[in-house]
Amino acid sequence: QFLLGQSSxxxxxxxxxxxxxxxxxxxxxxxxxxxxxxKAFLAxxxxxxxxxxxxxxxxxxGNFCHAQGICFIVADAKGLAGQxxxxxxxxxxxxxxxxGDPVCATVQHISQGNPGVVTCVGTEDSHGxxxxxxxxxTFSGVEGMTELNGQEPVPVHVLDAxxxxxxxxxxxxxxxxxxLVSELRQPQECSYKPLCQALEEPKIxxxxxxxxxxxxxxxxxxxxxxxxxxxxxxxxxPRVLADAERVLELARSLxxxxxxxxxxxxxxFASVSAGDLCPVAAVVGALAAQEVLK
Length: 294
Hints:
Layout: H1 13-23, H2 39-42, E1 47-50, H3 55-68, E2 71-78, E3 81-87, E4 92-94, E5 104-110, E6 117-121, E7 136-140, E8 154-155, E9 157-158, E10 163-165, E11 180-183, E12 188-190, H4 195-200, H5 212-232, H6 241-254, H7 263-272, H8 278-293
Parallel strand pairs: 1-2
Antiparallel strand pairs: 2-3, 4-12, 5-6, 5-11, 6-10, 7-8, 7-11, 9-10
């Protein structure tokens, strides 16, 4: 924990961290709440983040936040593994669903017809345009066919790397020269599942199929760790074989419906799960902070 020193030993971590944390940004009010969490207390927030929280607490807080329209995040690190869960409610609007700048291209010609065909060139580092079927576009700076300038966004159909079909231009003035066609990104509304449903139907996304068994096994390992802590009142002791074997037994009972279990991963995870490593916590914390900003 980066904000604590030797003199902090024995103190409440929230109280000991508050002053140093507040100094990072004087424009942010930082308060320490050391009493039990209550629904009345949670109801005052736009987003709630839980860390080092028992599964039972995660579930009731998650259900409450989902019902109240409060964004809910779980962030945790155990040993070398981290976990992040986000529930932004049933009607979360993403203003910019794509990464990077909107696509645009220079117009070379626009035909009169139904549909009209736009011939264009792309950006300096592209030989053609980068539009996709269904993209909404607007036009500006077109000479001749000025009806397109300021028109409501229209969907495009990609013919090839240089040509796009748009709507009916047969009644428009003849195209002369110039113009820019630009992508207009529309906000998207997403619906998130509460934690209780997400645990029943986990949707694990990985960069490659080879990573799926490992990711699924870590997901089960975290659930087994919660079960072990509920059973024993503590985390598994480091490198104690009996504790790791018990976590593995619990994982086997939890993961039978979700594909094969990588038992070596679960065993290793259980053996080091009592450890707190600042670099791992920093990575998980940074990811969680970005989700909070959303």
